[in-house]
Amino acid sequence: MVRTPRLSGFDWQELARELDESGYARLPGLLGPSECGELAALYGEARRFRKRIVMEQHRFGAGEYQYFGYPLPSLVRALRTGLYARLAPIANAWRARLGSRERYPASLEGFLARCREHAQTRPTPLLLHYRAGGYNRLHQDLYGAVAFPLQFTCLLSKPGADFTGGEFLLLEQRPRMQSRGEAIALEQGEAILFATRERPVPGPRGAARAQMRHGVSVVRSGERTTLGIIFHDAE
Known about the structure:
The chain is α+β, with helices and mostly antiparallel strands. It has one domain (4-229): Sandwich (Jelly Rolls), CATH 2.60.120.620. The protein is built from six helices and 14 strands. Strands 1, 2, 4, 5, 7, 8, 11 and 14 form an eight-stranded antiparallel β-sheet that branches.
């Protein structure tokens, strides 16, 4: 079930260009239907997870999600490791354009060591589950002082068969401009990379910081399950 070799089949220079241009990039067909089904089925295995969140209790939206515990499932671990290695150069280029001296280690293990130095030791990859009427308010996934500027989600359910509605939402706020929103309909097994908190955009005096938030529109019918991979761990 290790999918790192499949990541090599994407044009990462083109994905970097898309991330620079739009703040997100799509990875169609990353997972097959059987892999999506196997991952979604893990939601009912409580021993796999360290924490369950009911969104209504925190006014996050309507639905629920569960954070995996360590050790992560093999496919989730392979994706997190392989994605990080490809995204670190993009993250470092963004830091440089924003005038920051911060640089991210080349490997996920090196980055998680940095998280541990700041007492961020709890894993953050998760499964999210919505029923009809469910949604996720626009937000940013920040869990401490250390945060990686990119993250990932993959749709495990089949649109039109398992659910309707439930588009992935992105909101961008550039300095001195009105917000720009986008609703993205993913296919089963398709993933999306997107900015966690901010990204560089052209400004009158060089690069400016665009603030990014993400969420999920209302699920009209059925049930929708997704895999989320956040690279920084939580306090």
